[in-house]
Write a structure and sequence with these properties.
The complex is a heterodimer of chains A (300) and B (165).
Chain A (H helix, E strand, L loop, with lengths): L3 E4 L6 E4 L6 E4 L7 E5 L2 E4 H21 L9 H20 L2 H24 L8 E7 L2 E6 L8 H23 L1 H8 L2 H5 L1 H7 L5 H47 L5 H30 L5 H8 L1
Parallel strand pairs in A: 3-7
Antiparallel strand pairs in A: 1-6, 2-3, 4-5, 6-7
Helix pairs in contact in A: 1-3, 2-3, 3-9, 4-5, 4-8, 4-9, 8-9
Chain B lengths: L1 H6 L4 H136 L2 H15 L1
Classes of the chains: A alpha+beta (300), B mainly alpha (165).
Chain lengths: 300, 165
């Protein structure tokens, strides 16, 4: 696979010529992560390498931090506590309860940090520009060694699927399997029709309850939409940022990309925040008993 | 769906690898950072709350102690005023009694003095009378010696003595 290694500047659809062969080397920012090497049957892509790097950084930082955590905070622990307290308060504003925030934050905060670090690692010099040239279908193609992990749909889709599945696990654990099932396949809505008609004399139930049943089915479709929206939003934004930076570098490599790099730093924070906050919102919704809000309104 | 998978090179093995990566991060961060940090922060919050409660209790105790102190001072002052009042009343009564006693003593002394004076006066008068009588007798005797009428003398003496007595 690896033919020759060299340093290159990123460019979208840019073409250069090598001195040795006079054959064009294609520089394309592909929409997918390129394979770098194989471990048995497992293909390691450039985005996975970045993801490993992000994981390694976080693990080292966590291991280094644990020794510094004391009863009386000093130095970096102060900043860590400010960050943690801020995250808790933000989570409280979404969940409405400190207990829920303490349960969900150990999942949501690493999600935020992992996505943020991967978004920012994709902006580092060398990511997308250090690589090798390989021959593919008779063409010489530049393959970068590193690629922002969130600029690969495999990463964002995996995180989105995991987030949605975890919301369902949390929902089952909180509201029970039957209650959670009725959120989507609202059998209760159909079962209460005779009671509402014959006992409560609510004849509109014959129309309203089937609608409630179908709303549940629509919510089921909504769960798939959640995965798609979470994964494609993050992937789209980060990949678009990489393409933008590549295009700017191709126009004028020295100063022009700078404002866009700052823009991408902010985009990285915002996208990490959106992904983790939406996950927290979904967790909160799923752990709230179905129809709790309506009953509350009816009580008033 | 197939076109999406082929376009984006979706590979379940890669997805699993990413999930394993993320799982490691969650585990490590939870074990090394969140758990100890949350424990320390909770412990500190509890300590602060306990200290605040204690401080509040101390302040309450101080306030009630101050109140008790003020009440004690007030009671002591009232007691002192009462004692002073009683002492003043006692002093006044004692003073009055002393004055009265002194007055009585003075009266007694005066009365005794008067009695003594009268006694002395009577005694003196008696002595004076005796002396005057002796003097008169002596003078009359001497005078009558010159007159030498014993009968007249005797009558004169008797009359004189009668007048004197």
């Amino acid at each position: 696979m690896t033919t020759e290694q060299q340093l290159n500047t990123p460019a979208t659809e840019a073409k250069t010529e090598t001195a040795q062969t006079n054959q064009e080397i294609k520089h394309e920012t592909t929409i997918f992560a390129e394979p770098i090497f194989h471990l048995g049957q497992f293909t390691v892509t450039n985005s996975l390498i970045n993801s490993w790097a992000a994981a390694l950084i976080l693990v080292i930082a966590a291991a280094a931090m644990t020794k510094r955590i004391t009863g009386i905070p000093r130095g970096i622990q102060n900043y860590l506590e400010i960050f943690f307290e801020g995250a808790l308060n933000l989570a409280d504003s979404v969940t409405g309860s400190r207990e829920k925030s303490m349960k969900f934050l150990p999942l949501v905060l690493p999600l935020f940090l992992f996505i943020l670090l991967n978004n920012w690692l994709g902006l580092l010099p060398g990511v997308g520009s250090i690589g090798f040239v390989e021959s593919l279908h008779g063409e010489k193609v530049f393959v970068p060694l590193f690629r922002g992990a969130t600029a690969d749909l495999n990463t964002t889709l995996a995180l989105a699927i995991m987030a949605v599945i975890l919301t369902h696990i949390a929902g089952v654990m909180t509201t029970g399997a039957w209650g959670h099932l009725n959120r989507f396949i609202n059998i209760n809505a159909l079962l209460v029709i005779p009671k509402k008609i014959f006992k409560n004399r609510e004849y509109t139930a014959i129309l309203v309850q089937p609608i409630n049943f179908f709303v549940g089915l629509i919510e089921l479709v909504g769960e798939l939409a959640k995965m798609a929206s979470l994964s494609f939003r993050l992937f789209g934004n980060i990949f678009a940022g990489e393409v933008l930076l590549g295009a700017m570098a191709a126009i004028f490599a020295y100063i022009l990309p700078l404002p866009f790099i700052f823009l991408e730093i902010i985009v990285g924070i915002i996208q990490a925040m959106i992904f983790s906050t939406l996950t927290l919102v979904f967790l909160t919704i799923m752990t709230t008993a179905h129809g709790e809000g309506e009953e509350h309104q009816e009580a008033h | 769906m197939d076109s999406i998978i082929s376009t984006f090179h979706i590979d379940y093995k890669l997805m699993l690898a990413q999930l394993v990566n993320f799982g490691i991060i969650v585990g490590v961060l939870w074990y090394f950072v969140f758990k100890p940090l949350a424990a320390k922060m909770t412990e500190r919050t509890k300590t602060i709350e306990k200290s605040l409660d204690e401080a509040r209790q101390i302040a309450d105790n101080l306030k009630s102690s101050e109140q008790r102190h003020q009440e004690a001072i007030k009671a002591a002052r009232q007691e002192a005023e009462k004692i002073i009042g009683q002492a003043n009343a006692l002093t006044a009564a004692e003073k009055q009694r002393s004055v009265e006693t002194a007055k009585e003593e003075v009266k007694k002394v005066v009365a005794a003095g008067k009695k003594e004076i009268n006694k002395e006066k009577e005694k003196m008068l008696a002595e004076v009378k005796t002396q005057v009588a002796d003097l008169v007798v002596s003078a009359t005797g001497k005078l009558l010696e010159k007159i030498s009428d014993k009968k007249i003398d005797a009558n004169l003496i008797k009359e004189t003595l009668k007048e004197i007595s």
